Amino acid sequence: MSALRPLPRWADILLLPIINLVLAFVISGLVVLAIGQNPLAALEAIVGGAFGSGYNIGYTLYYSTNFIFTGLAVAVAAHAGLFNIGGNGQAYIAGLGVILVALPLQFLPWWVTFPIAILAGAAVGGFWAFIPGWLQAKRGSHVVITTIMFNFIAAAIMVYMVVNVLKPAGVLAPESAMIDPAGRMPKLGTFIPWFRNTDVNFTLLLALLCLVGVYVLVWHTRFGYTMRALGHNPTATTYAGISNSRTIMIVMTLSGALAGMVAVNQIVGVQYRLVLDYVADAGFVGIAVALMGRNHPIGILFAALLFGALYQGGNELQYVIPGLSKEMVVVIQALVILFTGAMEGMFRPGLQRAFMLFSPAQKAEAEARNVAKSES
Amino acid sequence: MASDTHTGNSSAQRPSGAAAASEFAIELIKINKSFGPVHANKDIDLAIRRGSVHGIVGENGAGKSTLMSILYGFYTADSGEIRVDGTPHSITDSRHALALGIGMVHQHFMLVDNFSILENVVLGVEDNALLGPSLTRARKELVRLAKEYRLDVDPDAIIEDVSVGTQQRVEILKALYRGAEVLILDEPTGVLTPSEADDLFRVLNELRDQGKTIILITHKLREIMAITDYVSVMRQGEMVATLKTADTNPGEIAELMVGRRVLLRVEKGPATPGEVFLSVENLVVKDDLGITRVKDVSFTVRSGEIVGIAGVAGNGQSELLESVSGMRDQSSGTVRLKGHPLSLEGDDGAHRAREAGLAHVPEDRQRMGLVTAFEEWENAILGYQGDDAYGKGWILDIDAARAIARQRIEQFDIRPANERLKTANFSGGNQQKIVLAREMSSNPDVLIVGQPTRGVDIGAIEFIHNQIIKMRDAGKAILLVSVELDEIRSLADRILVMFDGHIVGEADPATATEGELGLMMAGISDKTAAAPAVAEGKTK
Fold it and tell me: Which of A231, B315, B474, B513 has the most neighbouring CB atoms within 10 Å?
């Protein structure tokens, strides 16, 4: 026996999450069993509901789009050592920016409105994260506290804005006016029949672009270098002459801007209007996505797909098996978060031992020892 | 490997005092340990006599810490046998080591800052859920230990309020309270002031006289000579010699450590000071708590000379370095580089200092000078990541950065020669070379160096000293701060002594005796009154 060696990279980013995931499903299965249902049927319903047809996949991708954005938002901040819990509020308030450009510009073709809406969402979401960033950089208020508080402020502002300002006269539901049908962005189903009647739209491509963008930013730019240095050792960045306060403010703004893209997906891509609570806690799921994806774009892509599948499959579950309510899906999601996020390292030591037993270096060493013994 | 374990009843097996079965407290027999391709310990044999102080010396990466970690149960040896009091044991973890009477005082203390000394001693060995009885018992025990070993501490003092020397004492008390018969101390004097170190040696002598066994890991040959009975020398994972300290000398030990004769004295020609490159005028600096640590300090450093600042740690040297290099805002005063005042305010002051031609090797390489989680090449550009050499515009040219890092690895003999290795995996001396290579390669006018050889092995010390002198001879102005008086005396062309935030005197290293400097560093002697005037007279 010797000291535990780090796992090979593929085991670290692939095998470990899969083991955790399997365990989460096994325990979920036990819960399903306990309430008198067949866990295999439930699993089939979830998987089928998420990937069973083009329709199901379309919806899975639609949910994943949101989770990619919020996962990236958390990851970008995490690389700089910041924990942005406010993705929800930033995604929510960004809707204000999006609707305020989308409605006046509804007479323009969608491909003109779309980029402008992206900029508006990024600006407002970014601004909403910039304030906590500024407070941390200049006043020392911790972003974890301030971003949580800003979630509540955002929720209150949005209710006020929708009900008192944006709601057209004569409409009962608390929602803004609809974007003119002529100015609406078509969904992907219009071009790809497979996805017909689903909500997946061009914002998915934006999400994929953001994945690449974040990868380049973090590992291939000077700014990415400084933010990673800050994340590991803020004293070293001060020594290096990198302004920590400036880095914190920029990173938080970027993080908020990424979260704000959820508003583009929802308003420009799906709802064509501003409704209440359209974020549906995607901001919080983003934390789990970033955790599970190890703050790496590739990991985030797969984690977002997983959570998208869980959301969509979970929605289907209640229709397929009436005994299982939507709450059951929340339990499964919670278990997945628990095992892949909070208890992510549980199997690491065991896996490291297992790997060392079977590693070629270890084998060669043991053989050499045996030879030495028999020779002496 | 578990077959030879005798864990069942280990503490009962431990013989006490004179009834010991063996004259050796610890015997290590043919210990082997590898980390991947690195063979950290090769067939190590070591016997530690009961009731002795046994020093273990070796360069960084020689395998001392690995060996002690095996003894203390952090690592398990790949092969070999550990005997405690003559009985073989397979030590599985540190709890097990403690049960066998082996205690360790780590280089970095493992104390809870806001607990009292008493609470720290009891932590982890409380008798039961109620704390009261344990504390009462511990208080009695502390009084007894204090009497027996002259280890006085105030049990109710809070850790963060007491000096580093006292904290170390608490670590020793913790080990003794847990019944340690063998104490391992890992580089114990690295964090101590000279007087605290003397105090530690007195305590160690006392412990030895009372029958305890001490294992002392250190770099400092002077400590080996001063305190140990036996000394074992390790080199590149092998045990090269175990000697009786009385029968050897520092030169012999140093030679065994590096495998060749090293010059403990630095060879350098006379300085040829030119124009004033760095001038500090009436500098006042506060620390994080708002306490003024640098009080109206003025001095100059000329091109082609090394000015050394001597002083006991904590007299304002750190704040002086941090301020001049732009890391810490100054309260008042001016820093000029070649006559131009530097603007160092804000948290990117160090960037402007670098741009003006001032490079800085910080006192604490791991906390400031490096991001240890980064790969080597990433640290090779820290502070210079915006330079044109490392890319165009926003993009970081990783290939260029790696190529330059490789070049420097060769130039500064950084080992292992792998720019993709995580910096934390380099030894202390090689980490220091990474920092030094980076700062020297920027071709600065002024180089500020803090504690250049702290925790660095002898071979690397020689290299680092020679590099600093090479910089001087190339016409750079060098400001050197070190708590090692030997280092200041052998490197500096002029010595300024700092005490309580003031520069209290200036000395010529060729003529000043250690005694004179020591008095100035202690802030006593009648020189204190006259000295500031002398120092200022020279700078103006």
Answer: B315
Give the A:B interface size as CB pairs under 8 Å. 100
Could A240 and B367 be called an inter-chain contact, meaning their C-beta atoms sit closer than 8 Å? no
Pick from B34, B72, B396, B420 the residue to mutate for testing the A interface (most A CBs within 10 Å).
Answer: B396
CA distance B452 to B456: 8
Task: Write the CATH number of the domain with boundaries B22-258.
Answer: 3.40.50.300
Which residue in B465, B468, B466 sits closest to B444, CA to CA?
A: B468
Question: Rounded to an integer, what distance in angstroms lies between the CA atom of residue B369 and that of residue B355?
Answer: 17
In order of their start, the domains of chain A are 17-353 (1.10.3470)
How far is residue A294's CA from residue A288's CA, in Å, rounded to a whole number? 10
Cβ–Cβ below 8 Å for A233 and B398: no
Q: Where are the beta strands (DSSP E) in B36-106?
A: 38-49, 53-58, 79-84, 87-89, 102-105
Per-residue pLDDT of chain A (376 residues; tens, 9 = 90+): 445 667 777 777 778 888 888 888 899 899 989 988 899 998 899 999 999 999 999 999 999 999 999 999 999 999 999 999 999 999 999 999 999 999 999 999 999 999 999 999 999 999 999 999 999 999 989 999 999 999 999 999 999 999 999 988 888 889 999 998 888 899 998 898 999 889 999 999 999 999 999 999 999 999 999 999 999 999 999 999 999 999 999 999 999 999 999 999 999 999 999 999 999 889 999 998 998 888 999 999 999 999 999 889 988 888 888 888 777 778 887 888 788 777 777 788 888 888 777 766 655 665 555 555 554 4
Distance CA B332, CA B326 (A): 13
B288: tokens are 């994080």
Amino acid sitting at position A13: I
Residue B366: partners with Cβ closer than 8 Å, 6 or more residues away: B372, B431
Supply the CATH classification number for the domain B276-357+444-539. 3.40.50.300
Output phi, psi for A166, to 5 deg: -90, -20
Sign of CA dihedral A249, A255, A260, A261: positive
CA B321-B327-B329 angle, to 5 degrees, is: 95
Q: How far apart are CA B114 and CA B158, in angstroms?
A: 6
Interface predicted TM-score of the whole assembly (ipTM), two decimals: 0.83
CB atoms within 10 A of CB B267: 10
- What are the C-alpha distances in Å from B423 to residues A165, A221, B429? 56, 20, 12
CB B282 within 8 A of CB B249: no
B100 burial (CB, 10 Å; 0-12 / 13-18 / 19+) is buried
Q: Are strands B182-186 and B24-35 parallel, antiparallel or unpaired?
A: unpaired
| CA-to-CA separations, B216 to A105, B182, B220, B387, B533, in angstroms, rounded | 77, 11, 11, 45, 44
Contacts of A139 (CB under 8 A, 6+ apart): none
The kind and range of the H/E element at A348 are helix A348-358
Q: Does B421 touch chain A (CB under 8 A)?
A: no
The secondary structure element, H or E, covering residue B466 is: helix B458-473
Q: In a 3-state reduction of DSSP, which class is residue B338?
A: coil
Angstrom distance (rounded) from CA B146 to CA B143: 5
Distance in Å, alpha carbon of A225 to nearest chain B alpha carbon? 8
Which of B352, B395, B398 is nearest residue A241 as measured by Cβ atoms?
B352
Amino acid at B425: N
Q: B116 by DSSP, 3-state: which?
A: strand
